[in-house]
Amino acid sequence: MAFSKIDKLSEVFTRRLAGGMSRRNALNVLGRAVVAAPLLPLLPNERKAFAATADPNLTEFAKHAQDTDDKQCNYWRYCGIDGFLCSCCGGGVHSCPPGSTPSPTSWVGTCYNPGDKRSYLIAYFDCCGTGACGQCMCDNTDRGAPVYRPLGNNDIIWCFGTDSMAYHCSTAALVGLASE
Amino acid sequence: MKARRAVIGLAVVLGVIAIIWQSAAKVPTFNRTQTQYIELCSGCHGVRGRSVPTAVPTLWGRVGYFLCDKNSRAYLGRLPNIALAPINDADLADLVNFVVFSLGNGSAPKGARPYTAEEIGKLRAEPLSSVALRAYRGKVVEKMIHSCGAPSAMLEYAPTLTQPKQQTR
Lengths: 180, 169
Prior knowledge:
Chain A has 180 residues and is α+β, with helices and mostly antiparallel strands. Helices cover 24% and strands 22% of the residues of chain A. The model of chain A is unreliable at 45-54 (pLDDT under 50).
């Protein structure tokens, strides 16, 4: 019974469409829809969808974090950084300045992004091999552990694996989306 | 006619850019166990278990050999950074199983059983905190090389000493 109703509705719709629109016109409309479809997710709707998964337990850092200026200590990715920001030292938020060497080891934190209201795993790779940069010193401690738990401590120079333990600055590379 | 073609052409180009932008903007999503591994272990061992072999033991394709025998199996559960990880027994068992079976990439002996929360609970209660760890690890690995065909490269291990930041700032 249900199928016959759907059949009837489809028939009525198709006949009306055929009676009121030429074949070329129909193709024109269909073509526009196909071209426009990929653009739709760019609209603010997508960000709104992310907002639904906001974490209510925000840290003090996360409450005041911003996502526009990576040369400020309250940039969202720096929730657990301790050191000079490479973005102030000729490098970037995830790249070392020329002349310094990225360490293959890092300490990892989880930071809340106010832009899409989700939490991301951030690896703080130190840039090593040359003298301290001295610019934009930040010391944020979200999820940080005391020094006797070195794996969660950001007060240590993470230059293990490089030729020199001389510390220059710190980056904040995005690893991926953390589980809720 | 030309104007219409130009508009359609532009729309197509924008559509392609949108598709590329969307796929490029996607970041990997990790489940609970992977997230815990990344937070607690990947800083030294690498997100995929690949690290500088002389600074930190490489996990990828190797760590499964620790399921070789009872002693090596216990060694893994009693390692201080595993035993003292700030997560419960069930989560820790999932994490260690992810490490040995996924990052181990087939290095676990055939038929090796996964760790249970109960087994991990017993092992972590006796962390290897009062033995010369590197020497002890060397003995465990030598037996794995002899008995289970583990690669001799697993003996490479010479961690750099930690140094507080205050000394250089």
